[in-house]
Amino acid sequence: MVIDFGTLYDFPRDLNRFFEEMMQPISISQRRTSYPPVNVSEDANALYIHACVPGIAMDELDITVTENDLVIKGVRKADEGRYYRQERGLGAFQRIFNITTNIDRDNVKATLKNGILEIVLPKAEAVKPRKISISA
């Protein structure tokens, strides 16, 4: 049997964190509970989304790209066993990202490696930066 006293020792810190979160704007506290956590970046050629989805197989994820949105859906299932403590949440999840850049939807790629889902959304040619030559 495993007894976790960590919650008793951490009680004052947890109480402080609770009140600090109550004072935060709603958008920040919502961001903490979003799953999966993501990093979103871009360069001149594409938008990149890296989502942490440990323990989730490729066939348990559903990725959909529409004209304006990217939707990541999945289900976190419980492993077999008897748990004394289970901090990782379970169940269905969904993240929706509004895409304001024109992307080439036919060439969107997704890979899953070591629990990190990488989605590459290539920018449409019309929105990529172009070098303009100067004529004399």
TrEMBL record:
Annotated InterPro entries: A-crystallin/Hsp20_dom, HSP20-like_chaperone, Small_HSP
Any Pfam family: HSP20
Domain SHSP span(s) in chain numbering: 29-136
Domain of life, source organism: Bacteria
Gene3D superfamilies registered for this protein in UniProt: 2.60.40.790
Residue spans crossing the bilayer: none
PANTHER family in UniProt: HEAT-SHOCK PROTEIN 20 FAMILY MEMBER (PTHR11527)
Protein name: HSP20 family protein
